[in-house]
Each structure stands twice: as structure tokens, then as C-alpha cells.
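Quick illustration, no need to memorize.
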Amino acid sequence: MDLTLPESGWTLRLVGLGAITSLGASIPVGYNIGVINAPTEFIKHWSNETIYRRYNVLLSDDSLRAIIASIISIALIGGVIGSLQGAYLADKYGRKKSFLCCALLLTGGALCFLCCRAASSVELLLLGRLLVGLASGLTTGVIPMYLAEVSPIKLRGAMGVLCPLGLTTGVVVAQVASLEQALGTEEHWHYALGCFAVLNLFCYAFYFWIPESPKYLYSVKGDQAGSLRAIRKLFGRHTIGDDYIKLQMECANGQHGPSAQEDGQPQANRSLWSVVRDPTLTLPLVLVCALQGGQQLSGINAVFFYSVSIFESVGFSSQAAKFANLGVGCLNLFASLFGPLLMARCNRRTLCLLSCSSCAIILFVLTLSIHFIHLIDWFSYVCIGTILLYIIFYQFGLGPIPFFIGSELFDLGPRPTAMALGSLSSWGCNFIVGMAFPTLQNIWGAFVFLPFSITCVLLTVLIKFYLPETRGKEVTDVVPKVAHGFRSRVKE
């Protein structure tokens, strides 16, 4: 009887789990990030008419702008709140049920979008945006952790990038759906907002087919029999040799530091306060929060926002510029498709250093080329080239790695809290960029990209000196390398 895992490590159940979580949650979350920009004018006009009809109040332009800002930003606030709840839900109810919660919140948001026009309710639209925001924060905190915990060590990176890959795919699908040739019209914009609910059906249809995280069952719930059943469900009855159980389980005897547990006993959940106060967790917590927050502060959303005006500056019509921007989104998706291969073949630290340092240089060049674009004609093409290069290098490391690096730096006890704080940092910085960028752009002009370049420089320094290599390593081997705070310098 063969007691070894297939050489590739992939099984039908493992591939299916990655596809189901991506289709059921990650892609819908990305969809909601990308869909809201195109129909903004339609939503503004409808909101004005609806409020006047229901409350007999005629809104000023400033009031309308405030409503649109609220509709956009409430999802980001929901992302912050959802991130904070991720640790509690993941430990209390498990990774699998947390995934179901993501899908339920997304479906609830979609129903609000689909019904808001029939109900003539701006409040329902706001509620829908809040629900999808809660789902987004929960998804980015829980799904990468779930996928990393069900994976063999050599596939942990490839599975970990499926969540950011799903987000990127969702953004591109949203850009297509919100085109005027599709659902981006005054009559159909609410269908554009809510049609992603079809994808949530993948969660409901296959929910009982996917297993709970074996590591969660073993080390958090103390359910060794349930953990063994989950492993068999993932990898088949004939792949449960002793070596593979050791590979899958972060057992008690292998834990380090305050999160250690006694042999055979479930690992105690770590509260937010205990994780923040623990000096052995300071450095990994800084790394996770800096990478996830820095991912947003590196300016990826701002670059997409600015790309339409850059395409227009080289002579594209408004419509052509939007299609060119869609092409940029497709490039972003194409580059992200190499993520699983890169994570399997290349070191995390090397990819992060290459990505952050390259993005810092590219953003600096973009700043100069935008500033002098009216003096030298061909600088318009430099701008386009730098945008394309930025997206490619962003997807090498800065795009995918922050989502799952927490699963490789933390033991199971503090991991949900650390992943939740990383997700909180991401959505908080996303909110800051979304609120501050338009104002700063008006004040600083092209130099609004300099803070993004500086962020990438700071991330490069942090990674250079403090991020250990995690590819192919047990978490128990990585934890001691970051347990001494900022004295834990990486040894080349």
C-alpha cells in the first residue's frame, strides 16, 4: 500500500478547495473593489432623484459628492471592521465556517444592490456596500490562512497566492461588466453591482465537500480524529504516512515561545492584547502589518486611477482610454497568473526585495515623467511604460506575498490575530489612500507619487534586514528567527 503523497503534492480535493474559495469569495471581493468607479455618475443621478422623491430634499453638488464618497468609503470601513472580526471568527468557528460567513455577507450585499432601485432606497445601497466591505476584510484575513494551513509545505506559497489572484481577477471582471457595452448603463448599473452573487453559489454548492483546516482541528480544537479525517479528505486514505502527518501538523512538541502547548493539548487562542504585548511577536507583527499596509501605500490603486488621464494625454479618446485602462487591468491579471509558479520556484525574500526596490525606482521615474509631460512630448509614452513596468514588478512580490506571509511567520495560536491585524492594516491604508489621494493630487500634482516611492524604499530596507526566508521551511523553524524583535537581523 502506497503511504506517500503524490510527487506533485496536488490532489483533486486540494485544487478544488483553491478554486471554490477563489470563486466563492476572493473573486467577488475583487469584483466589488473594481466595479464601483464606472457607474458613479449614474449612482449620483439616481441618489439625487431618490432623495428628492422620498424626502423632498434637493441636494447640492457638495452633498451629492459627500453621498458618493460615503458609498465608496463605507466598504473600506467595513473592510476594517471585518478584519478585526476575522481572528475571532476563525478561532471560534473555524476557517471553513468563516469562509461560509464571507459568502453569506457577499450574497446579502448583492441582494441589497439588486433591490435598491426597486425599493428606491439609498440606505439599502449603503447597507450593501457595508456588507461587502465586511466580507472583504474577513476574506483577506481568513482565506489565505485557510489555504496555507491545508497545504503541504512545498505548495503553501502556490496556494497562498490564490486569494490575491482571485482579487485581481475580480477587478478585471468588474471592469468588463461595468463597461457601457455590458451593464454599465443608467438602466442596468445595479445589476452590474450585484451580479457577482452567482459566484457565491460555488461556496454553497460545495461547502460540505471541502474540509476544515487539519491544523486548526488538531492544534486549536484538540480534535485529533477530526484532523486525521480532514487530511484523508484532502489527500486520500493512502497518503497518511507518519512523515506526512508530521509535515501537516504543527504539533505541540514543535511549538516555540509563549504559544507553546503541552503535548496532546489544544493550543490556546491568543487574544489581540496578548499578541500585541508579546515581545517575541513584535517583529513578525511589524512585518505582516508593514507589508500588507505598504502594499496599499505603494500606490497600486492610485496608478490605476491616474492611468486613464495618462492615456488621454497621448491622444486617446475618453472611451479609448477606458479600454486601455482595461488592458492595464488585464496585464495586472496576466502578471499575477505567474504567482503560483514564482512562489514554488523562488524565495519569498528575494521576490519581495526585487519587487519593492523596482517599484520604488519606477514610481520615482513616473513622478518625473508626469511632472515634465507638457515639456517633452515623448514623456507621455514614458508614463505608459512605467505604469506597465510597475504593474509587472508589483505582481512579482508586493502584490501576492503580503497576503499569506503571516501564515509562515506565526504559530497557530497568534496566527489568526496576526492575519487579522495585517488585513486591518491593508484596509486601513486603502481607506487613507482612497480619501487622501484626490486632495493631495490637486495640491501636489505629479509629486503625489513620491510618498508611494518612499514607502517602497522603506519596505525594501525592512525586508533586507528583518524578513527571513520562509519558502520550504516549517513555521517552527522560522519563529525563532524573528523572536528577538529588531535584534533578529537576517544573516546573509
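Confidence is low (pLDDT under 50) at residues 1-5, 241-265.
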